[in-house]
Structures are given as C-alpha cells and as structure tokens.
Amino acid sequence: MAEKPIYTFPPIVEETLANGLHLMLVEDHEQEGITLALQMPFGEFCDPVSREGAAEMAIGVMLKGPASLSPEEFSEKLEHSGASLFTDVGDEHCILGGKMLARSSEQIIPLFWEMVCNPGFRPKELARIKRETITGLQAELADPASIANKHFGCVLCGPDHPIGRIQTIRSVKRIGINHVKELCDSYISPVHAILVLAGDFRVHEMFSKWRGLFESWKKRPGRDPVIAGPLPPVSGNRIRLVDKKDLSQVSLILGHPACSELDPLRNELAIANYILGGGNFSSRLMAHVRSKEGKTYGISSQLSCSRNYGIFSIATSTQNSQAQAMLASIIQVYRTLSDKGISQDELDKAKQFVIGNMAFQLEGIVNVAEKLLWLKQFGRDISYVERFNERIASVTVESVNHAISLYLSSPGFAIVAVGKKEEIGPVLSQHGPVETVNFRSLL
Amino acid sequence: MEKSRLLGDISDRTFDNGLKAICLRKPGAPVVSVQVWYKTGSANERDGIRGISHFFEHMMFRGSKNVGPEEHARRINDVGGHYNAFTAEDVTAYLNSVPRDHLDMVLSLESDRMNDLAISEKVLETERNVIVEEFQTYMNNPLTKAFLEFRKEFFMGHPYEYSALGRMEDIRAITVQDCMDYYRRWYTPDNALIVAVGDFDNCESVFEKIGNCFARHPASGTAAVAAPAGPPPNRSLRMKRDVDFDVPICIVGYPAPAASDKDALPLEILQVVVSQGESSRMHREIVRKHSLAVMAGGMNQSLKRAGMSIFFAMFTPNVSQRRVEEAIIEQVEAVRTGSITKAEMEKVKNTVLTNRVYELYSADHICQKLAYSETIEGDYKRWVTRLSELESLDVGILADAARRYWDESARHTLYLKPKKVNPLLFAVGIARKLAPKR
Lengths: 443, 438
What we know:
The complex is a heterodimer. By secondary structure, chain A is an alpha+beta fold. In chain A, 43% of the residues lie in helices and 19% in strands. Chain A folds into two domains: 12-215, 2-Layer Sandwich (Cytochrome Bc1 Complex, Chain A, domain 1), CATH 3.30.830; 238-442, Cytochrome Bc1 Complex, Chain A, domain 1 (2-Layer Sandwich), CATH 3.30.830. A six-stranded mixed β-sheet of chain A has the order 1-2-6-3-5-4, with helices on both faces. A six-stranded mixed β-sheet of chain A has the order 9-10-8-11-7-12, with helices on both faces. Chain B starts with 10 loop residues before the first strand and ends with a helix. Chain B has two domains: 7-214, Cytochrome Bc1 Complex, Chain A, domain 1 (2-Layer Sandwich); 237-434, CATH 3.30.830.10. Chain B is of the alpha+beta class.
C-alpha cells in the first residue's frame, strides 16, 4: 500500500506561455507575502575565458534596474514599498527573485518585469559592481576557509575546466559592458526560463492579471545552456598548499568527483554522505575527529550534484600542530567506510533524517518556490517531493554500499590546504607532490 | 497598518518553579521549533572565568546522567531536525527544530539537560580543545580580531567589555568545578524561558507537556537580575589597527540604549534611514554621489543593558580615511539636526512590515524573535506590538533620540589600515577618479 505523502504542495497552476516562458503560480495564504523567482540557464559556466565573474556581473547590472529608470529611482520605488531582490548565480543556472507584500505586488511585479525585459546596462553601474566585487574578493582573503574553497575546483578539475576557473581581480577588471550585454543577449531568454510566483493570491486571478505582462518578454532563441560533462576520477592525490604566513590554523578541503543528480544511486550516496560527514554529530567524521579527539571545531562532508556531474568534499580546520593527525584521521574514517560500508542502524537513522528534513526545505513561500525550480531543473514533477518517503524506503544497506563502492572509494583526493608553508608543507608532502601558491595569487 | 496574521494567538504560562513558557500555533510546514534561553551570558562572568558561558554552551551537548555525549544532537538529527546554540552577552540559547511528531522528544531532552547535566574531566579536556580551535578560527580572521578589540575598548569597564569568546588564559584554566558552579547558579527554571512555535494542535496541550517535563525541576530561588549597568562610559576614542587585509575600513560607533529603552526603536528606525539598502542616505551620498566608498552600511546592536550603533565604509587606498570618516559623520549629523522625510518614514514602516511577514513564515524565526524580546527587551509583547509602536513615532522623537545618543562626545572611531597597499586596488581607485562623470 502506498505511504501517505510526505508533503502536499498548495494549489499550483502552470503553463508554458507563447514566448516560451514556463509560468508556475502557487497559492499560499499563510502570510500576506508574495515571492517571485525567475530561473534561467545562465551561470558561471557561461563566463568567457579570462573574464571569470562576467555572469555574476551581468545579473548585478540587471539588478540596478531597467533602462526607463535611473538606478536611484529604481531602488527608491522598490525599497519604498519594503520589497527586496535576491539572486543566486550558480554554475549552470541563476535565480533572480523578489520578496514583497501582497498589497505592493501591483507596483513591484511590473517593476521587476521591466528590469528583466529591458535592463539598463549602464557602464557606470558595471564599474560600481566591479569595485564592489573586487572589494569582496579582498574580503575573502581574510577568511582561510573561503580561500580554500576557491582553489578546490581548480585543483579538482584543472584551471581550464569551467569548475576550475577562478574569479580574480584581474579577470574582473577585464569585463566590459559589451561582454555583459553580449552574455545577456545570448543566454537570457524566455525560452529556457521558468518563473514561479508564490504567495497570498488566487491563482486564476493572478494568472489572468499578469499573463499578458509575462508574455510581453520578447521571444528570442537563447544560446544553449553551458552544462559541464562528467568529471574524470582522481587517480592519485593532487595537492595545493596556499601559503598564508600569519595563520596558526590550517583550513583543509579534500574531495573527488561523485555522481550526478540524475544518477539512480543519488539518494544512496546522499545517505552515505550523511553517515560519513554530512550528519553533523551523527556523522562518523564528527564523532571521531571532534567528539573523541577534540581536534577541530567543525568537520563536515558535502555532496553537491548537477545534471552531469557531482562533487564530494570534506572541509575542516585545525591547529597547525594537529594537521598531520587530522589528515590521517580523515583518511582513515573515509577508508573504513569504503572498505566496510554502513550498518542497518546507521541506514535507519539516515533515512529518518532525509525524510524528516524535507519538511524544513518547504517552510515558507521562498523555499517552496525554490524547490519547484529545482524540480523543474531536473525534469521532475511535484510527486518527486510528495512521494520522497517512498523512494527513500526502497534504499537498502546493499544499495548504499554499492554506491559507496562506486563513488566513495576514490584512490586519490584533490587536497587544498590554506596555512603556513613552513609548518604545513612537510605534512602535505607525505601524501604526494605539493604545489605551493601564495594566498594573494587569487588577486 | 494591517496586523500580521498569527500573532493574536500567542499565549504564555509561568510554572510554579518560575519557568516561563511562550507558545504559538503556526500551521503550515509540519515542523515545530523549541528554544530554551537561559538568562546568562558573558556579562555574568568575572575575571578567571571569562568565556565560561560559551564553554558551558558546548558542555550542554556533552551528555547528562541519562543522555550520552552528543546524543541530544544525534537524536534531533536522526529525525531530520536541526539544532543550534549561541552565547551572547546576556543570554545563552539552545535552538531545536524537528518534524512536528517529535515535540515530546525535544522537550524531554531539554528538560534532562536543565537538571541532570554530567561533566567529566576527560570530556571537559576534549571540549576545551574544541573551544581553543573555535577561538583560533576567529582570531585568524584579521577583521574579526580587530573588531573584537574595538568592541572591548568601546565597552571598557562595562559588563560587556568581554565578548562571549572570553579570554584564552581563562579558557585554558576553567575546571569541572567552575562549570558545575556556573550550572547550579544559572541553569535553573526560574532563570530560563522556553518558547515553542509550530504545527501542533493547540498551546494548552504544549503547556501541559512542558509542565510534565520541567515542573519537577526546583527553582534556585536566586533568579538572575541583571545588574543595572547603563550605557558605557561617555567618552570618545580613536583606534587604528594595521591589518593584513587590503581594503581600508572606517567604523564609527556610538553608544545606544538598552533594548528595553523607549529610545531603542527610534534609533533602529534611524539606522534604516541612514544605512539600510541602496536608497539609504549613506549609500546615496557616500557610495553613489561622492564615490568615496565602495560599500557603506551600519547596524544597531541592542542588548539588555546597553547597545552600540555602528556605521562603516569600505574604500580604496587612494581615498583618505579622514574624508570617509567625515562623510559618515555628516550623514549621522544630518539626522541629528535635520528631519526625516515622510517618504523615508513610509519606507521604514513598509520595510519593517515586510521583514515581519517573512519572519512569520519560519517557526524558528518566530521563536527567536519572541525569546529575544522576552529576555532582552523585557517582554515578548514588545515584538508583537512593534508595528503599532512604530505608528506612534514622529520625526521629532527620532531626531531627539539621535541627538542624545549619536553625539560627538561619545563617538568611537576605528580605522583598519592595510599593512601593505595593493597596487591593483590603488589602480581601481585612480581609474574611478579619472572616469568621466555621468
């Protein structure tokens, strides 16, 4: 007998409009808010070579408002009503969104749409955004964990792969308004876009009221989205030490490619990741390295999956004097999982977590809108979420161990350490050849 | 201004042992949040045990007579929930969110560690290492380190002088006995608040469950009363730090009143007008019109006994720190001596209302707001009535508050000066100066 749905979405109306835009309206009267989220297949992978950061800047320039209003007028109109914008520029997709009061939607929805359809593209605004970005890049240099994160993709995939290309001050300085405009002209089109409008309205009223506006976005064939292919495995350790002399701690990230989002073993691998390092105090890494040995404030593993590839990684920090023991502990815990797999008890608890946690991913209209976009991105319908418990129920110890044997038994790791060369270099060299760069190389 | 949904249904209960509970039924996602806030934090520490509140926050996850080390966290995780904790100047808070069917488990776990915590030498030593790691993580960030030094100077001689991180020499010396003394003194029902918000049947049944779990714990009889400390000393200060960071930063700080003071809300509103968003005065004038800074903003930190208003700007090395500082002060002076426009007041009201609406989508946020308001502002109803309180303010009240708090005689300035000038950043600044004006 089928289990009770884990969650039931509020009423949804969806339709692909004549211009190609896919529109989804979600009626939710919990509070008097309305959220609007537009997803487009335009992300950092679209950055031209040596102009890393261009996609993010393109979205940044759009957010300064439409051609018909000065940036000052645009921000005044928006903020006067209490509304705000949000963005998320990922590797392959971006989301532009807005949060507003239902009573302000008459003013804010057309304003948002004008920004999307006829962005201002003012050179002066790009110059401002570049300065802000450069300052942000500088600020990241104060945070060793951020530095490690920025280098990790490069060590894992190489500097020429879209994942490995790093945004630097130099790459940002090379971006001109023509590059930004060309990117938007090429990729930002209603044909591949999905718009979710969720909140305090009647869907049919909302649909008839705004359909014409959303259809006014001129149809044009956008370029095909830039999507990375599967990543080759890491056969031996690839190690980069980012030298920062003032540090008494070392920040570490190590990892390797994993399965894609659409892989049949995706849920099994998520469960394996929870048991290894994703489950905080329930994870083996936390229990061994923090609770038992007190070597770190935090250690966790992550599994991030896109359409064709996935990346598994472990991140932590520890005092320089503990670096050797820390690396040994991490590798030991990882190899034990690879060799011996998981237990039934661990599986039962991990299943409860992934099923129970879904409720939090659907709390509030912003989360609901983003979850719907995520489902569409991977060609899934809402039953994937509503019946998620049934999918997880079918996971077994054997199927998780099979996923581990395929995806968490890597012979080598990409390793990035940010720390003091004199103290960390000798530790890392025990694991293979070490490439050393200065932390300022990101500039 | 329309009333936000939900808030009419909040209820509270105080049990015989002094424990106060606040409850709100929030239909929607099938989750429930439970938070326990103890009214103790770094302001209750003394020399020798600076950092014990935060140390103790860690120990609360390390097991009791009935629950094993980290089992609290694991049980929450294992049903798909999440937990967290934080230590501040006046409170130490424990936050739990779980699918709605697991409310009983959370209450039972929180009740257990309120009364039956167990601390061994071995666990204390392991956790000390973890805390030293956490301390070092903060100190390895030059901006955090410099700001903590500024904060220490700002509150010199005040109970807020030390942040929750405490002092390393004290952290290294804290004993099991220190922890147990601290536990008995502060972790009692009459010094605690429990807030539950979520998708449960009704508040009455939740109060009953809370009573069943917590009512047996004895009151200490010495419920904490924060020593009246007032604002920090009225003095001005200039600090400069050479930091291993390429972007110069100027921070200007002023004393602010305790969160319960009638002037706290006016200063909060002024902060929105001066520093929040792209339509704020600082962004318009300092970033856009005069191009003196790359980013500019501000915030108020409202605490139980005093507060701090800060304004900051990040700029390029070719701009003089003095000019940036003057530009920030000019904006502060403008609200002290001038008035807020009607449009600005409308904006603030709409911003506060929108923030409130979006907070109400999350049980966790609601819990946190109610608990803050009750423990720091003195009454959770302050949060509930904030929107109507806002309606009663006029521009005269705002300017008057700014005149009294954001005064030159109490101004503190911190200049974070890069140890080295990065030629690339310098070039960015020069290029900006040479760019044609539009």
